[in-house]
Amino acid sequence: MKIIFCLPRIIILLILLLCLSACNTTSHLYGADNIISQQELLNAKVVFDEPLKPSELPEHRIISLNKEMEEFLDKYVLTARGEEKKARLLLKAMFDKDKLGMVYDPSSTYTAEEAFEKKIGNCLSFSYLYAAFAKRTGLNMRFQEVEIPLEWSLGTDQISLSTRHTNIRLIVNNSHDFIVDIDSIGIGNHYKTLSMTENEILALYYSNLGSQYLLAEQYDDAFKYIIKALYLSPEDASVWTILGVLYRLKGYNDYAEHAHFIALKYDVKNYPALNNLAFLYKQTGELEKADYFMKQSKDFQEKDPYYRYYKAIEALNEEKYYMALDHINFSIDRYEEEAKFYMVKSDIYTALGDIRMASKAMASAQKFAQN
Cβ atoms within 10 A of the Cβ of 294, count? Predict the structure, then answer.
């Protein structure tokens, strides 16, 4: 049995450039011309003149309790008996306005203690806080990442943000699960979940702050936080891509190139790495390479059901109804349990004046929305 708790959705910020797209090949025609080791990329000597030492990297108490948090648990949770009762009371106390009263803010990445003090936070902040409480309460918990689809921009191929979604799985009495989630998007049966180690979810804290420093053009701090994230989670392709962006912005194109290839080594479907390579090669005048990576992206972009969903909406708005139908039928063929695909299909048939088919598509939308 699986019991679901849903809370407001949070976005984890990632820095991406150009269009996001897909690639399912395991090799590339091109590689980095110069061999730069992974350790060279991590010590960032070209940025700081001397190798960056691990002791110079940021260190935060991310999942921990203070005295006030202990008192909160004693008052609202620890007096209860049974794991299931404690799990329910903990979640209620965290968001009850008369107790802690946590508030969602997608831009706020905090440690557990900061989130408790400020009563505000994003996805990671909620996860860290709940985890700190759950550990002290003795609950058996795991971090998870939910592989949610890309969010494509309507009317443009350029995307600046992507989302990563995490939740917490509690194993209660060794018999059933509680999924503590911040949004119903994380509980769809057709979305794959991946277990995360504690180091991996801690790395997201540092990569989030590193991304914020990047946006603020505070590049030295950005490097330190991103490199800290990679020490914790050295196979996270998304973080390697951000490091590649940082190196490019600082003018170290060879290092940027190599960081993106490392990202592709760990995830051959890493969309931003492919596109950032295309952008990098275009900047350096290596147009054959730029065309190669952009073509790879574009070829597989057309195979993404969510991209075709947005293309269907675009065609519908332009009154290109049969083109819209082709796009949405492709999406449904690839992902037949997505309710919003059928809603668009119903709109298309309504525009075409085919009420019977519109009603049939709407019935499918309602069916899958209830699952």
Answer: 20
- According to DSSP, the residues that pair with 171 across neighbouring strands are 140, 177
Residue 30, phi-psi category: left (phi > 0), alpha (psi -120 to 50), beta (remainder): beta
Angle at 214 between CA 209 and CA 219, to 5 degrees: 105
Poorest-pLDDT segment among 50-64, 144-158, 251-265, 346-360: 144-158
Sheet holding 140-146, edge to edge: 2-6, 176-181, 165-172, 140-146, 193-196
pTM score? 0.81
Q: Tell me which residue of 181, 212, 225 sits closest to 52, measured CA to CA.
A: 225
Residues forming beta bridges with residue 121, ordered by sequence position? 104
The SS3 of residue 139 is coil
The backbone region for 315, taken as left when phi is positive above 0, alpha when psi lies in -120 to 50, beta otherwise, is alpha
Q: Tens of pLDDT along 246-265?
A: 999 999 999 999 999 999 99
Taking the C-alpha atoms of residue 259 and residue 1, their distance in angstroms, rounded to an integer, is: 43
Whose tokens are 């070209």? That residue is 46
Q: Domain spanning 305-369 has what CATH number?
A: 1.25.40.10
Task: Name the 3-class secondary structure at 169.
Answer: strand
Locate the domains of the chain by residue range. Answer: 1-19+55-252, 305-369
Cα 286 to Cα 182, 264, 271, 278, 279, distances in angstroms: 44, 19, 20, 9, 10
Q: Is 104's pLDDT higher than 50?
A: yes
